[in-house]
Automatic annotation (TrEMBL):
UniProt entry tagged with the keyword Ligase: yes
InterPro entries linked: AMP-bd_C_sf, AMP-dep_Lig_C, ANL_N_sf
Keyword Hydrolase applies: no
Domain AMP-dependent ligase C-terminal intervals: 371-464
GO molecular function, one term: ligase activity
Species of origin: Falsiroseomonas stagni DSM 19981
Listed name of the protein: Phenylacetate-CoA ligase
Gene3D superfamilies for the chain: 3.30.300.30, N-terminal domain of ligase-like
Source taxon at top rank: Bacteria
One protein family per Pfam: AMP-binding_C_2
Annotated keywords: Ligase
Amino acid sequence: MSARVPPRYHEAIDLDALCQEFPPAPEFFDTVWTLPEEALRARREAAFLKQMERAWQVPFYRRRWSAAGLQPGDIRSLDDLKLIPTFSVHDMRESLERDPFWPDYFGVNPATDEALPLVFQTSGGTTGLPRPMMFAPRDREVMNIVTGRRLFMQGVRPFDRLQVTLSLGLPNGGLLVREGIQKYTGAVPIMTGSGAQTPTRRQIELMRAWGVTHLIGFPAYLRHMALVARDELGLDPRGFGIKGLITHLGVEDRGTLEELWGADVYDTYGMNEFGSVAVDCAEKSGMHVFEDCFAVEVLGLPDEHGTRRLAAEGEDGSAIVTTFFKHVAPMIRFDTNDITSFAPGRCACGSTHRRITGIRGRADGMVKLRGVNVFPEAIGALVAADPRGNGEFLCVLERGERMVVRVEMSDGSVAADVFAADLAGRFKEALSVRLEVEVVPKGTLAPLTGLDTTSKIRRLIDRRAVQEA
Ligand SMILES: [Zn+2]
């Protein structure tokens, strides 16, 4: 039984061929990054068709596409992408109900297929079981090449020291970035993990003693670190010699973080299922999609008839991601639910790869309040912009279409009632909806948001279904 023979990693993958297909940094930037549109298009078409061939072998897609009346020959180019039905985590969960560990969106069958060196990681999983993903060497190596590219673009060079403050465990974030740093940057990953793994004061001590050059983590935690250094240890983080902060910025205020650390902040967008998709270049004018590895579409939110159409440049919608490189679980038109838009025009850096704007929120985290769409992320951006707060907040949705935003003050000298009134006015002005503001002491919200213990920080609690005692 060949399926029972343990595989050898180096025999399971042709790394030279893979690096031709998906060049790592620095050669990527001399080749694919600035390819004229037509040549880039040709490269993408070939990769897409190859991925479609693989996807037809995956039971999940065969089942769904056949039900939609599609045949393998129907999709002949990227222009036909729009004919393929999208899917979301809800469809993945349906598949997971049948098998929570080996869903049918994995195109490898342990009973019949040859053994492969596999990596298993999951989504954050705030409710129920997390969403599993399995990676073959090819899947993982392309994701690692992309990590190498993005860090190169954001100024990371050999022998730099990168402190990674992401959770190390089931979620992909921390472990994936370690593989990419190790294999494709020449820099050194320092895996301190989240605040639960290495307490914040210890993180700061190590950072200073070891001469860390870059920090990788979620923006709320990076801000928290800077404030602990400044307010509790009496140290100025701008003197720590940090060159760059690499983060998933979302709507967090870049300027505030840059000011706190005296360092450049770079935004990145990615997911457990396929790693980084799009990242800031040095221009910080929108995140370039790695278009040789992915197709990103922006699909508008449903109109009053429930119809969705592809959004034009500059128009908001949810990011739909298609991978070009995955073996175990290709992702074809995955509706991420993340709200973004295409940035207009060409970037000054000279790349031909399209850019998306920062992720403004989750379509499924959006709250409809008296007819207005409200994203907790947008509230966070307004909170972070006021220095009387420390950026920490929690939205509590109450019955009767009320939202109370609890906001931490930066210290005891803040006049809470004035701060609350000003912030409520700012919300009304920027979001066109009235929200109540409750100012609370520093540190009060951490047990509810999970700031110190998890990288999946909670910003919204829905209490509408809670019966008052
Ligand atoms: Zn650029």
